[in-house]
């Protein structure tokens, strides 16, 4: 592409995932001339909804389906997607954990109903997850901050008890004491299963933090599903960007800095390694080495199904949940994750399943419905996961195979073909350890700034890490406004401003 003139844009964003668009919207609302460059023919990165051609009228979410982090994200709270026509529907049950030889554990949106179903652990669940859910904004601010500063709301004396409880629970769940304060296998499996949204050894502090954040939001905001698919969130961001003068260019590949038009600031919604490639020999050597050395984690391999009916869960209560964690007991999940960490495929891998039509019946067509599932596998694994995932679902839902009308698999090794940021199937854009979540992608005071050249990294490879929350883009954009454009006040994101 030929750009019209030098200085055509104030800011360029490379990549149209949720973080890239969050950055672009923030900059455009500050009055800057902004364009977004996307290599794919469609917009949205990991939050796209597409017709895979598997069945008429059936669409699938490519990477993300349920959106706990979008519901709890300070960026999306400020952006107010529901005031922009995005309908977010939280299922009656946020998530479920089927077990082989006893009833499933269910995390209902209602914390009291959840506690009642956990028997002897009901009181402990209520006093921990219930207490955190009552103060969920504190939990969200702690978890989704820039890891370089204390969120202002956390300093409020009224927030300190919740912050202390959150820290204590992360410590308990992330160490060999991870049984505390729960005593039953069902409750322990329920909490460990939600931590498995981050791929890694169990127990670990990063897994513990994930379980506490997502577990808190399950009872506070719920795990909502956007009506029509994840694309509706992306479309709302693009509409706002365009209303404030921004543009999006698709099919534009950025291999080096020369592929980007002149601008005072450039923000990369890419992996750390891709940022180093784009700015090769233009970065301080130490920073370039750090970006190239940022470690990728293990991976997800995905299967999109079309079913002729609802999943026949052995425990019918599971059918109320929008998301289901398959792996059995906590010990079984820990063993499977250890095998993946050692570079081996687990025979019964931790598998996540989402049926968006549980909350959004409009996703069904002609008696058919989509189902979204992925399993944890070693990084770069080339194996077709269809049989492994199907067997894992069948383990807890006998007769599932009979409902499969069509399917499409994406091995971990092929994930980057539809999203370059998913290197080897690593959807977290880097290992999920506590150190790597803080020093992400480096331990520098400003993890977003790429030297002194006016370029920044705004992807999930920066704090707070992976997820559809827009916070990495928001943090980076606000730094750009302060350091490159001298802004002293940040723009409102409200649709009423």
Describe the protein in words.
- It comes from Candidatus Brachybacterium merdavium.
- This is NAD(P)/FAD-dependent oxidoreductase.
- It holds the Pfam family NAD_binding_8.
- The protein has 16 helices and 16 strands.
- The protein has helices spanning about 20-30, 70, 75-80, 110-115, 120-135, 135-145, 160-175, 185-195, 205-220, 230-245, 270-280, 285-295, 330-340, 385-395, 435-440, 470-485, and strands at about 10-15, 35, 50, 60, 90, 95, 105-110, 225, 245-250, 265-270, 300-305, 320-325, 350-355, 370-375, 405-410, 455.
- The strands form 4 sheets. The chain has a 7-stranded mixed beta sheet with strand order 7-6-12-13-14-11-15, sandwiched between helices. Strands 9-2-1-10-16 form a 5-stranded parallel beta sheet, covered by helices on one side.
- Residues about 1-5 have low confidence and may be disordered.
What's a concise summary of this model?
The chain is of the alpha/beta class and 497 residues long.
How are the elements arranged and paired?
Blueprint: E1 9-14, H1 18-29, E2 34-37, E3 49-50, E4 60-61, H2 68-72, H3 74-79, E5 88-89, E6 93-97, E7 105-108, H4 111-117, H5 122-134, H6 136-143, H7 160-173, H8 185-195, H9 205-220, E8 225-226, H10 231-243, E9 247-249, E10 263-268, H11 272-278, H12 285-293, E11 299-307, E12 321-326, H13 330-341, E13 351-354, E14 369-377, H14 386-396, E15 404-410, H15 434-438, E16 455-457, H16 471-483
Parallel strand pairs: 1-2, 1-10, 2-9, 6-12, 10-16
Antiparallel strand pairs: 3-4, 5-8, 6-7, 11-14, 11-15, 12-13, 13-14
Helix pairs in contact: 1-10, 1-16, 4-5, 5-9, 6-9, 7-9, 8-9, 11-12
